[in-house]
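I hope you will forgive my troubling you with a question about protein structure. Here, with my thanks, is the record as I have it:
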Amino acid sequence: MSADGKEVGQMKKHRIISILLSAVMTVSSASLFSGSVAGADAVGDMNGFRLIYNGTVNYAISTARYSSEGGPTDDYEAAAALQSTLSQMCGGARFALSTSYLSSRKQEIIVGSDSDQEKRGIITVDRSGIEDDGFIICTSGERIIITGKTGEGTWNGVEYFIKNCLDYDVWTDSAPENVKSIGIPKDINVVVKGGGAAPELETVEDSGAFATHQYGDIDYDTLFSHNAYDRLKNAVVCYSDETTIANIITKRIPRGRIVYNSLFDVCTCAKCTAAAREEGTEMGAYFRLVRRAASENPNTRITILAMNRTLKAPATSLGSNVDVIICDRKLCSAHSVGNSSCPINREFAENLAAWKKLCGSVSVVDFTSDYFHFPSTFPNLFVMRANAAYYKAQGVRDVYMQFDTKMADLEFADLRCYLADAVLKDPGMSESRYSELMNRAIAHYYGAENAEAIRAYIDLATNAAKSSGCFDINTRPENIIPIKTGSGSGVYAYDLTFAKAAYKIWNDILPYPSVAVSARSRYSLAVSSRYMASAANHAKMQFNTYLSQTVEPIDRTDVVRAVMGK
């Protein structure tokens, strides 16, 4: 995490949507397919809006193309997938895709939340009743609108539209072909609120939980905001300067926080250099400022953040009224914090022990999911229990297991949320109790019929990752469960032992459609890597993502076919 908050922002950027759509849905038309024309050459309600009729295309698709960063939006990609799917269904018929308002056209499908039509006031959509993953499908005049608050919501709307209005189910590879006519009800009004959260399976007995515990989305603005010196930008601040010290103490002590979260250069004046040498950390002068503030304000509790440059504990005590939040994003996720054979976590544990001697209380932020390669397989579910037990045994006051509960791309999202909640409520639970809870949760979230297979995959991935040694939240998938052999070329350059075993498990749970190999349409390709069809589908995508991110692009077709036994 950098001083300017770029990495925090990146993490926040991926707080996308809840895992499961809620059942809050309104469909005003009695049936999306009422009045359908019989026969394979027609789909939908011919008394409604005719997207194509007797081979003549009547509708175009409109969306916004670029984001503020300049890249294609999720809305645009969803619209392009819809265009491709319609064209494929209709024997190559051309459905135009526009990214700007065409004043003469009133027959169009508007996809997304940033269209020119909405900006110009031609259409209005009230999204106040939906969550980030929710969506609305409605009409305005002859226009059909598919939109969410976010690109992810829009994607969900497009997926719903394709499945329920076009009768195309990509998962079973059943799609109408050579369609000459498609009709959509004039009164269609579908509202899916979204925002469903993983339900609590059972109340886990609290056998000595932490004073404060939280899993999921951490309030970075409050917890990690750099406030040791408000005007710090690119300037080097001298924490030995009396004016600076007085300024910081005056501003920060009333609020009880002196947080330094910066990677900017430190002062190298004679006083700061001496403080660094004597305290055994380059931020020695900063820690002396904190010590002074605590001493001068004995009745005020002061919170500081041990992170980046301030991660290492100083040599001398800060005072019993100082609370320290330790945040080390380099923690090894392959081993528990208390595993002394892991050099990374051993160093962390030693630093934790040092901090305990220097302050009033210690809290820990435990980064426990992959941020940058999601939703690829991240096999640390068993480490979560061991870490919670270790923190409790070491007298840690507060624990924050950092991952986003609303991140639809989170690997085993429902399961992970439940297990995090369980170990934070009962950090002393046994391995057998944890395993029992895991099995119950798997059956609950992914179906009893899939429970044994999904647990087998979790165990398979956990064991496969052991050969890779240490990994953390930044580690690339191919370095967590390596599959390259380093010899041969193409498909022969890969050891597919794990991939084939994992594929067999997931194919038994949810058979892979042939469309995933043949890539019949852009939508087929896109939805094959999406997650919203079901909790089990969501979970399956982590393996798909792992495989695609691990294999070189030029080899993917051959490797996928080899994995699938083709």
About this structure: The two ends are 44 Å apart (CA to CA).
